[in-house]
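Ex. 9. Protein: 2,4-dienoyl-CoA reductase [(3E)-enoyl-CoA-producing].
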Amino acid sequence: MSVPESKYLSPVWRDGIFKDRVVFVTGGAGTICSMQTRALVRLGADACIIGRSVEKTEAAAKDIATVRAGAKVLGIGGCDVRKAESLQAAADRCAKELGGIDFVIAGAAGNFVAPIEGLSSNAFKTVMDIDVLGTFNTVKATMPHLMRSASPRIIYVSATFHYTGMPMQAHVSAAKSAVDSLMASVALEYGPRGVTSNVIAPGGIADTEGMARLGSGEEAERAGYVKGIPSGRLGTVRDVADATVFLFSDAGSYVNGQVLAVDGAAWRRQGAISVGIDKGMEYPDYLLQGQMSQNLRDPRKAGETGKPKL
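Predicted structure tokens for 2,4-dienoyl-CoA reductase [(3E)-enoyl-CoA-producing]:
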């Protein structure tokens, strides 16, 4: 499905700034990462997107390739970031078919709403494995190729929950905190060898899988959340894509080891908000009463509502 350029890229960027660059993206068929990739390809890059679903990943790659004549976008489905050998094979294939790897976006992630008492060890481990082990595996698989690039850059897509803590997000807070720490370690160890390593931490981004999964879908709940954002609106995929273009461009060459929160300053008020609740549910009452929104839905199962199965 064709996406208007105005949805994923501001008009301030010069055409061709990423000519002859290759970006490797985990979670590349997701609503945020696909738009980051789309923006880079539009500005001259070729891309390799990785995902677990073969059909979804290949379809997304074909669609992204339409943004620029002659663009090469490789979609590798059936790849599990938790398995080092799977990622290594994907990275090697990307470098062989597209000529190398210059940029990496570590975007594969998992999330759902659950209180600690309703969170199984297996569910917690699943999120940690996808986000943390998956990020580590991504770095290990791509770094040999990045080291051959003239401008090696890595971006990790994180979150802001762990800055203040967030009810019903203990698993993701722990995982994203670890991702931010890995980012810093990579900056310290590989910065002297020319690699920049930075985090983009989106807040609530409109029309994404994350918002669908974490919000109740009720208009009143959404309006209340937006009212609490200092910038007065939800973020857009273009906000995240523009931040990505900046960090990968020459303008971002001296930005290293940093966390860039793209959230309209929402995290500054984060202690006063929560996820997975409906209008009228107040902290700490809903926790003490064991309540959570009955309107949560799993975007992977269209039309389904209710509590996640853990």
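Check your answer against this statement. The longest strand covers residues 196-202.
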